[in-house]
Amino acid sequence: MKRIGLLISFFLVSLQINAQELWGAANSNYAGAMGNELNPAAVVGTPFKWELNFLSIEGSMMNNYLYLQRHSQAFKNGMKGEGIGEDRIKDRFTTSDKAAFQKVNVMLPSFMVSNSKWGFGFHVSTKQALSVTNVPYTLAKFLKEGFYYTPLQKLEFSGENMSIAGMNWNEAGITAGLSLVNRPEAFLTAGMTMNYLYGMNAFYMDVDKMDYNVQSDTMWHVAISDLQYGYAVPVGGASPLQKKGSGFSTSVGVQYYRNRNEVAYDPCQKESGTKKYDYKIGFSIVDIGKVKFNRMADTYKFDNISTDWYGIDTVGISGISNFDSLINSQFLGSIDGGYSRSSFDLWLPAAASLQFDYAFSPNFYLNFSAIQRLPVGEHALKRGNQLSITPRFEMKRFEIAMPYSFYDYFRHRIGLSIRYGILTVGTDMIGPYTGASDAYGLDFYIGIRWQHFESCQRKQDKAAKGKKADCYTDF
Length: 475
Known about the structure:
Low-confidence stretches: 1-19, 458-463, 467-475
Number of helices: 6
Largest sheet: 21 strands, antiparallel
Structural class: mainly beta
Distance between the termini: 56 Å
């Protein structure tokens, strides 16, 4: 059977390169712009005075169905221009629903300034995200093996609340924060990010309930109670970068520090053995917003439809218009019978997050964080739920962290992040790079940032009064 392209695009993506949270870098005291997306309250009270982010890139994908077997030497073969044998690509055929998440975020030059009273920053990014949830495991198996997979033929199956959504957009935003309480024993900050969203392309499909069976290699019986899909894509030679919609989003957060020591944030202090704080707790709600697509956009809606789809094993999709005519003709006997309207809203992958950071010493920390997707809007991108525990060694010029994360309550992962000077590189899942474990996805992040620390002026003696001390640090 030829793949039903848009329905299983997430499987193909997972083999070619979901939302990561940069656990190795985002909770650092030196995270800067790389941490503001997790909690905008982090813009207040940083050790540095200001930061210029030249470029930050993160890419991530994860699924719980297809995987590349360990010791497949994917990167070694790739460097040689060699492929990977299909026998190395396996499927996790369990009775759980299947899901995938993919994300790319390129943060262009951005800036933030911070002190113990307030913080402010602005950023410009281009983003792309894809999510697929609640795909029945039997449907996933048919899509991988073909409808000639006889062990599942002539059996009745069903699925509910299947969702597919993808979008790429540009984002321009500002982040601002204030300290609400500033006492030696208690330091409380709050922050908010407001973004303008420039939507370029999008697709969604939501299936309320589907019953199906495969009678033979060439016939699929399917009954759907409610199916909706929509898209905004370039037509008539239009550019894929052209604006097809716009919207707004926001993130809000708070952070509480216990026994925050302002002296430990002074770059002019020599090693004093004092911790920056005993612990800090943060809570945030992120990516609440949507893009309204109303240019080159179409939506379709089907209620209580069914069909005996003969020749399903030869179906191929060559484009979105072909997909439209195929689905409409098969279920309604008309190439546009399910047409609904020429606009739709697509919500961002909203989530709530909790962060706890404990300082064992001035340099050693242990962080626990969790992120849980939130149900928003009728049609929405979704992100993977995650739990993480991250030990890290942190200094002004150097940092190393090894995050453990439990991705979407399915996959245990170990990562590595290193910051040296202006460069941060890392991954929340190092296994695919070593080949030591089965690879259900891949992720990475890199940031090039200049952090400027406050200059020092000390009175050495009356003769040296006004002379800068030799403790100025600018990276």
